[in-house]
Design brief:
This protein is α+β, with helices and mostly antiparallel strands. The chain is globular and about 45 Å long. It folds into three domains: about 60 residues, Nucleic acid-binding proteins (OB fold (Dihydrolipoamide Acetyltransferase, E2P), Beta Barrel); about 70 residues, DNA polymerase, domain 1; about 45 residues, Helicase, Ruva Protein, domain 3 (Orthogonal Bundle).
Length: about 200
Protein backbone atom coordinates (compact mmCIF):
# COMPACT_ATOMS: atom_id res chain seq x y z
CA UNK A 1 0.00 0.00 0.00
CA UNK A 2 1.28 3.46 -0.92
CA UNK A 3 0.17 5.88 1.82
CA UNK A 4 1.56 9.10 0.39
CA UNK A 5 3.91 10.57 -2.20
CA UNK A 6 6.14 13.61 -1.85
CA UNK A 7 7.68 15.12 -4.93
CA UNK A 8 7.66 17.78 -7.62
CA UNK A 9 4.59 18.40 -9.78
CA UNK A 10 5.57 17.54 -13.36
CA UNK A 11 2.08 17.93 -14.89
CA UNK A 12 -1.39 18.67 -13.60
CA UNK A 13 -4.98 18.90 -14.80
CA UNK A 14 -8.15 19.29 -12.72
CA UNK A 15 -8.47 15.49 -12.56
CA UNK A 16 -4.89 14.17 -12.54
CA UNK A 17 -1.37 15.02 -11.51
CA UNK A 18 2.02 13.56 -12.40
CA UNK A 19 4.30 13.66 -9.37
CA UNK A 20 8.05 13.30 -9.94
CA UNK A 21 9.43 11.39 -6.97
CA UNK A 22 13.21 11.00 -7.27
CA UNK A 23 13.02 10.74 -11.06
CA UNK A 24 10.00 8.41 -11.19
CA UNK A 25 6.71 9.90 -12.44
CA UNK A 26 3.62 8.71 -10.59
CA UNK A 27 0.28 9.58 -12.17
CA UNK A 28 -2.51 10.06 -9.66
CA UNK A 29 -6.14 10.63 -10.45
CA UNK A 30 -7.44 13.40 -8.21
CA UNK A 31 -10.74 15.11 -7.41
CA UNK A 32 -11.15 18.73 -8.43
CA UNK A 33 -11.14 19.64 -4.72
CA UNK A 34 -7.51 18.48 -4.52
CA UNK A 35 -6.56 20.29 -7.74
CA UNK A 36 -7.66 23.53 -6.11
CA UNK A 37 -5.02 23.12 -3.41
CA UNK A 38 -2.06 22.11 -5.60
CA UNK A 39 0.89 24.47 -6.04
CA UNK A 40 2.18 25.36 -9.51
CA UNK A 41 3.92 22.92 -11.86
CA UNK A 42 7.55 22.54 -10.75
CA UNK A 43 6.78 23.03 -7.06
CA UNK A 44 6.87 20.31 -4.41
CA UNK A 45 3.83 18.79 -2.76
CA UNK A 46 2.81 15.85 -0.59
CA UNK A 47 -0.25 13.88 -1.70
CA UNK A 48 -2.06 11.31 0.40
CA UNK A 49 -2.82 8.30 -1.77
CA UNK A 50 -5.09 5.32 -2.19
CA UNK A 51 -3.83 2.43 -4.32
CA UNK A 52 -6.78 0.67 -5.97
CA UNK A 53 -6.27 -2.78 -7.46
CA UNK A 54 -8.76 -4.57 -9.70
CA UNK A 55 -8.45 -7.49 -12.12
CA UNK A 56 -8.16 -4.96 -14.98
CA UNK A 57 -6.04 -2.16 -13.55
CA UNK A 58 -3.86 -0.78 -10.79
CA UNK A 59 -4.64 2.90 -10.16
CA UNK A 60 -3.26 5.47 -7.79
CA UNK A 61 -5.59 8.15 -6.44
CA UNK A 62 -4.22 11.28 -4.81
CA UNK A 63 -5.74 13.63 -2.25
CA UNK A 64 -4.58 16.88 -0.75
CA UNK A 65 -6.39 16.46 2.58
CA UNK A 66 -6.98 13.50 4.91
CA UNK A 67 -10.73 14.25 4.80
CA UNK A 68 -10.85 13.81 1.01
CA UNK A 69 -9.06 10.47 1.19
CA UNK A 70 -11.16 9.24 4.11
CA UNK A 71 -14.42 10.14 2.38
CA UNK A 72 -13.19 8.54 -0.87
CA UNK A 73 -12.45 5.24 0.92
CA UNK A 74 -15.87 5.34 2.59
CA UNK A 75 -17.61 6.02 -0.72
CA UNK A 76 -15.94 3.16 -2.61
CA UNK A 77 -16.82 0.75 0.21
CA UNK A 78 -20.48 1.08 -0.81
CA UNK A 79 -21.75 -1.48 -3.31
CA UNK A 80 -22.17 0.08 -6.75
CA UNK A 81 -19.83 3.01 -6.07
CA UNK A 82 -16.47 2.75 -7.81
CA UNK A 83 -13.50 5.12 -7.78
CA UNK A 84 -14.74 7.05 -10.83
CA UNK A 85 -18.12 7.78 -9.24
CA UNK A 86 -16.44 8.69 -5.93
CA UNK A 87 -14.14 11.17 -7.73
CA UNK A 88 -17.11 12.66 -9.59
CA UNK A 89 -18.93 13.14 -6.30
CA UNK A 90 -15.86 14.74 -4.67
CA UNK A 91 -15.45 16.96 -7.74
CA UNK A 92 -19.08 18.07 -7.69
CA UNK A 93 -19.32 19.06 -4.04
CA UNK A 94 -17.13 19.73 -1.01
CA UNK A 95 -16.36 17.05 1.57
CA UNK A 96 -18.50 18.97 4.06
CA UNK A 97 -21.45 19.14 1.64
CA UNK A 98 -21.30 15.42 0.79
CA UNK A 99 -21.05 14.44 4.45
CA UNK A 100 -23.98 16.73 5.28
CA UNK A 101 -26.12 15.28 2.46
CA UNK A 102 -25.46 11.74 3.65
CA UNK A 103 -25.92 12.49 7.34
CA UNK A 104 -29.23 14.27 6.69
CA UNK A 105 -30.48 11.74 4.13
CA UNK A 106 -30.68 14.26 1.26
CA UNK A 107 -31.22 11.81 -1.58
CA UNK A 108 -32.34 14.55 -3.97
CA UNK A 109 -28.99 16.34 -3.68
CA UNK A 110 -26.91 13.17 -4.08
CA UNK A 111 -28.82 12.21 -7.24
CA UNK A 112 -27.84 15.49 -8.90
CA UNK A 113 -24.35 14.03 -9.30
CA UNK A 114 -24.06 12.19 -12.66
CA UNK A 115 -24.21 8.42 -12.27
CA UNK A 116 -25.86 8.41 -8.85
CA UNK A 117 -29.44 7.22 -8.98
CA UNK A 118 -31.96 6.95 -6.14
CA UNK A 119 -30.89 3.40 -5.19
CA UNK A 120 -27.20 4.29 -4.98
CA UNK A 121 -28.01 7.46 -3.04
CA UNK A 122 -30.08 5.43 -0.57
CA UNK A 123 -27.24 2.91 -0.14
CA UNK A 124 -24.77 5.75 0.51
CA UNK A 125 -27.05 7.14 3.21
CA UNK A 126 -27.79 3.79 4.87
CA UNK A 127 -24.20 2.51 4.82
CA UNK A 128 -22.29 5.71 5.56
CA UNK A 129 -24.48 7.85 7.81
CA UNK A 130 -23.02 6.47 11.07
CA UNK A 131 -19.45 6.39 9.75
CA UNK A 132 -19.58 10.01 8.62
CA UNK A 133 -20.91 11.14 12.00
CA UNK A 134 -17.43 10.27 13.33
CA UNK A 135 -15.54 12.16 10.60
CA UNK A 136 -14.05 15.52 11.50
CA UNK A 137 -14.67 17.84 8.55
CA UNK A 138 -12.44 20.88 8.22
CA UNK A 139 -12.31 23.44 5.44
CA UNK A 140 -8.95 23.93 3.73
CA UNK A 141 -8.42 27.35 2.14
CA UNK A 142 -6.55 27.60 -1.14
CA UNK A 143 -6.38 29.37 -4.45
CA UNK A 144 -6.68 27.84 -7.87
CA UNK A 145 -3.79 28.31 -10.26
CA UNK A 146 -4.76 27.55 -13.81
CA UNK A 147 -2.64 27.79 -16.92
CA UNK A 148 -5.49 28.16 -19.42
CA UNK A 149 -9.05 29.48 -19.30
CA UNK A 150 -11.52 28.22 -16.73
CA UNK A 151 -13.68 26.89 -19.56
CA UNK A 152 -10.84 24.82 -21.08
CA UNK A 153 -9.82 23.35 -17.72
CA UNK A 154 -13.42 22.57 -16.81
CA UNK A 155 -14.05 20.91 -20.19
CA UNK A 156 -10.95 18.76 -19.74
CA UNK A 157 -12.10 17.75 -16.26
CA UNK A 158 -15.57 16.72 -17.44
CA UNK A 159 -14.14 14.74 -20.37
CA UNK A 160 -11.83 12.92 -17.94
CA UNK A 161 -14.84 12.16 -15.76
CA UNK A 162 -16.52 10.41 -18.69
CA UNK A 163 -18.48 13.09 -20.53
CA UNK A 164 -18.19 13.56 -24.28
CA UNK A 165 -16.44 16.79 -25.31
CA UNK A 166 -19.64 18.28 -26.80
CA UNK A 167 -21.67 17.26 -23.76
CA UNK A 168 -19.03 18.79 -21.46
CA UNK A 169 -19.00 22.08 -23.40
CA UNK A 170 -22.79 22.29 -23.29
CA UNK A 171 -22.81 21.71 -19.52
CA UNK A 172 -20.21 24.46 -19.04
CA UNK A 173 -22.11 26.89 -21.27
CA UNK A 174 -25.30 26.15 -19.34
CA UNK A 175 -23.51 26.66 -16.01
CA UNK A 176 -22.07 29.99 -17.20
CA UNK A 177 -25.41 31.24 -18.53
CA UNK A 178 -27.16 30.24 -15.30
CA UNK A 179 -24.60 31.35 -12.72
CA UNK A 180 -22.35 33.88 -14.45
CA UNK A 181 -18.55 33.72 -14.42
CA UNK A 182 -17.21 31.67 -11.50
CA UNK A 183 -14.40 32.72 -9.15
CA UNK A 184 -12.31 29.67 -10.02
CA UNK A 185 -12.23 26.53 -12.16
CA UNK A 186 -13.37 24.29 -9.30
CA UNK A 187 -16.56 26.31 -8.90
CA UNK A 188 -17.25 26.11 -12.66
CA UNK A 189 -16.76 22.32 -12.71
CA UNK A 190 -19.11 21.91 -9.77
CA UNK A 191 -21.74 24.09 -11.44
CA UNK A 192 -21.37 22.15 -14.71
CA UNK A 193 -21.69 18.79 -12.94
CA UNK A 194 -24.91 19.98 -11.33
CA UNK A 195 -26.53 21.06 -14.60
CA UNK A 196 -25.18 18.23 -16.78
CA UNK A 197 -27.86 15.84 -17.99
Amino acid sequence: MIAHLSGRIAEKTPTSVVLDVSGVGYICEIPVSSFKQLPAVGESVKLLTHFHVTADAHKLFGFYTPEERELFTHLISVSGVGPKMALTLLSGATVAEIADWIRKGKTELLTRVPGIGPKTASRLIVELKDKLEKMKITAVPGAVRVESTFEDEATMALVTLGYGRLEAKRAIEKALSTNGHPKNVEELIRQALRVAQ
